[in-house]
Amino acid sequence: MNKSLQVSSLSVLILRLCLSGIFVSAGISHLLKPEVVIQRILDASYNSFALFFGHLHLLVILSGVLMLIGGIVLLFGWASRWFSLMLLIILIPITITIQMGNGFFYGPLWKNIALIGALLFFIQNNPKITVFTQIKL
């Protein structure tokens, strides 16, 4: 499919702001309260999936740093495609570990699926619309 679709630059900006906000918030949470995140992983039905990747404290801190950086970079529109891909790679195991074991109709599972869709939008389209391109001086 090679059709073009015009979208409002304001809608792309709003999507960028909302999407980056959740990753900045999650990154800060991972860095300030890693023990809470680790306990959520240990309590999750599919915790063995996360344990497969290594030491939980290191994984939580690393994912927190990457989500914080990725969220900030996405907010400002620098290398949106690559940082969206990085965030997607982080979000998939989080979704499998924490959300999948709670059932198909569990709201946070669908929130993560929506986040994956938004990240795929930036990966596919790589829009250059940022806060800076929208400011009229």
Q: Mean pLDDT across all residues, rounded?
A: 89
Q: Kindly state the percentage of residues in helix.
A: over 70%
What is the H/E order? HHHHHHH
**Main sheet, how many strands, which sense, barrel?**
none
Supply the helix-strand structural class.
Answer: mainly alpha
Describe the fold and architecture.
- Keywords: Membrane, Transmembrane, Transmembrane helix.
- InterPro entries: DoxX.
- By secondary structure, the chain is mostly helical.
- 76% of the residues lie in helices and 0% in strands.
- The chain has helices at 9-32, 34-43, 47-52, 56-76, 80-99, 107-125, 131-134.
- The longest helix is centred in the N-terminal third of the chain and has 24 residues, at 9-32.
- The chain starts with 8 loop residues before the first helix and ends with a helix.
- The mean pLDDT is 89.
Summarize this entry quickly.
The protein has 137 residues and is mostly helical. Helices cover 76% and strands 0% of the residues. The protein has one domain.
Topology of this protein?
Elements: H1 9-32, H2 34-43, H3 47-52, H4 56-76, H5 80-99, H6 107-125, H7 131-134
Helix pairs in contact: 1-2, 1-4, 2-4, 4-5, 5-6
